[in-house]
Amino acid sequence: MAAFSSPTTGALVFRAIAIAEACSWAGLLIGMFFKYVVVRDDIGVTVFGPIHGVLFLAYVVITLMVAREFRWSASTTALALVASIPPLATLWFERRARRNGQLSAPLAAE
Known about the structure:
single chain, mainly alpha, 72% helix, 0% strand, elongated, transmembrane, DUF3817 domain-containing protein
Protein backbone atom coordinates (compact mmCIF):
# COMPACT_ATOMS: atom_id res chain seq x y z
CA MET A 1 0.00 0.00 0.00
CA ALA A 2 1.33 3.42 -0.96
CA ALA A 3 2.01 5.94 1.80
CA PHE A 4 0.88 8.86 -0.38
CA SER A 5 -1.97 9.21 -2.85
CA SER A 6 0.57 9.79 -5.62
CA PRO A 7 4.36 10.04 -5.97
CA THR A 8 3.96 13.75 -6.70
CA THR A 9 2.23 14.20 -3.35
CA GLY A 10 5.07 12.43 -1.56
CA ALA A 11 7.65 14.62 -3.26
CA LEU A 12 5.72 17.80 -2.42
CA VAL A 13 5.25 16.80 1.22
CA PHE A 14 8.94 15.94 1.51
CA ARG A 15 9.92 19.28 -0.02
CA ALA A 16 7.57 21.24 2.26
CA ILE A 17 8.84 19.49 5.40
CA ALA A 18 12.50 19.89 4.35
CA ILE A 19 12.01 23.63 3.83
CA ALA A 20 10.03 24.04 7.06
CA GLU A 21 12.65 22.12 9.05
CA ALA A 22 15.42 24.32 7.65
CA CYS A 23 13.45 27.49 8.46
CA SER A 24 12.84 26.30 12.01
CA TRP A 25 16.58 25.60 12.36
CA ALA A 26 17.29 29.17 11.23
CA GLY A 27 14.72 30.53 13.69
CA LEU A 28 16.22 28.50 16.50
CA LEU A 29 19.74 29.69 15.66
CA ILE A 30 18.57 33.31 15.61
CA GLY A 31 16.78 32.75 18.91
CA MET A 32 19.95 31.29 20.41
CA PHE A 33 21.99 34.25 19.14
CA PHE A 34 19.60 36.67 20.82
CA LYS A 35 19.50 34.57 23.98
CA TYR A 36 23.25 34.30 24.45
CA VAL A 37 24.61 37.43 22.73
CA VAL A 38 22.13 40.25 22.24
CA VAL A 39 19.41 40.56 24.87
CA ARG A 40 19.94 37.55 27.13
CA ASP A 41 16.24 36.68 26.77
CA ASP A 42 15.19 33.16 25.83
CA ILE A 43 11.89 33.97 24.07
CA GLY A 44 13.29 32.98 20.65
CA VAL A 45 14.44 29.60 21.94
CA THR A 46 11.16 29.15 23.81
CA VAL A 47 9.21 29.73 20.60
CA PHE A 48 11.41 28.02 18.00
CA GLY A 49 12.66 25.12 20.14
CA PRO A 50 9.38 23.16 20.19
CA ILE A 51 8.56 24.13 16.60
CA HIS A 52 11.92 22.83 15.43
CA GLY A 53 11.51 19.67 17.51
CA VAL A 54 8.17 18.82 15.89
CA LEU A 55 9.43 19.62 12.38
CA PHE A 56 12.59 17.58 12.96
CA LEU A 57 10.51 14.55 13.93
CA ALA A 58 8.16 15.13 10.99
CA TYR A 59 11.16 15.29 8.63
CA VAL A 60 12.48 11.97 9.93
CA VAL A 61 9.09 10.25 9.55
CA ILE A 62 8.40 11.73 6.10
CA THR A 63 11.93 10.84 4.98
CA LEU A 64 11.38 7.19 5.91
CA MET A 65 8.01 7.16 4.14
CA VAL A 66 9.41 8.81 1.00
CA ALA A 67 12.47 6.55 1.00
CA ARG A 68 10.18 3.54 0.92
CA GLU A 69 7.85 5.09 -1.67
CA PHE A 70 10.68 6.05 -4.05
CA ARG A 71 12.80 2.98 -3.26
CA TRP A 72 15.85 4.88 -2.09
CA SER A 73 18.99 2.91 -1.31
CA ALA A 74 20.08 2.59 2.31
CA SER A 75 22.90 5.08 1.72
CA THR A 76 20.53 7.69 0.22
CA THR A 77 18.10 7.21 3.11
CA ALA A 78 20.93 7.52 5.64
CA LEU A 79 22.18 10.69 3.93
CA ALA A 80 18.67 12.16 4.05
CA LEU A 81 18.42 11.38 7.76
CA VAL A 82 21.87 12.76 8.52
CA ALA A 83 20.91 15.94 6.63
CA SER A 84 18.42 16.68 9.40
CA ILE A 85 21.23 17.34 11.88
CA PRO A 86 23.32 20.23 10.46
CA PRO A 87 21.48 23.52 10.05
CA LEU A 88 19.85 23.99 6.62
CA ALA A 89 21.20 20.68 5.25
CA THR A 90 17.68 19.45 4.51
CA LEU A 91 17.50 22.13 1.80
CA TRP A 92 20.69 20.79 0.25
CA PHE A 93 19.47 17.20 0.35
CA GLU A 94 16.05 18.03 -1.11
CA ARG A 95 17.64 19.87 -4.04
CA ARG A 96 20.11 17.01 -4.55
CA ALA A 97 17.35 14.40 -4.52
CA ARG A 98 15.21 16.40 -6.94
CA ARG A 99 18.17 17.01 -9.28
CA ASN A 100 19.13 13.29 -9.25
CA GLY A 101 15.56 12.15 -9.96
CA GLN A 102 15.16 10.56 -6.53
CA LEU A 103 11.85 12.36 -6.03
CA SER A 104 10.40 11.17 -9.34
CA ALA A 105 7.86 8.39 -9.70
CA PRO A 106 9.37 4.95 -8.97
CA LEU A 107 9.50 2.52 -11.88
CA ALA A 108 6.87 0.18 -10.39
CA ALA A 109 4.33 3.02 -10.21
CA GLU A 110 4.69 3.99 -13.88
